[in-house]
């Protein structure tokens, strides 16, 4: 692998992301996912949700930035998997939700680096078993 030496246990720089209703509208347009739970408080609460929630794939995509920003353009994402554990409620207050992402290197070999993610919103874990495998390591 190229780049600096990476060791098991190394913490990547934490990432703080803000998800607003505008973010959800833009993601819906790009993805084609116009499920009303992502824009209508009425529809979301009728289904027992706390209100409008972020798209799961948006949350997943945002969280992996902690790894891709760290790894740089020379690394290739080989695999990425998560389990959705809680929705990310996005209030219509102009501020939205804050997603905090921590990442730790959990395995290193001659070809790959494995990183686990810890993504939380309001102190609650929103992604479980989040694991990223990179080829090439950080640039």
TrEMBL record:
GO terms for cellular component: fatty acid synthase complex. The lineage of its organism: Bacteria, Bacillati, Actinomycetota, Actinomycetes, Propionibacteriales. GO terms for biological process: fatty acid biosynthetic process. InterPro entries: Fatty_acid_synthase (IPR003965), HotDog_dom_sf (IPR029069), MaoC-like_dom (IPR002539). Gene3D superfamilies: Hotdog Thioesterase (3.10.129.10). One of its GO terms (molecular function) is fatty acid synthase activity. Coiled coil: none annotated. Residues 16-117 form the MaoC-like domain. Belongs to the enoyl-CoA hydratase/isomerase family. SUPFAM superfamilies: Thioesterase/thiol ester dehydrase-isomerase. This is Acyl dehydratase. Pfam families: MaoC_dehydratas.
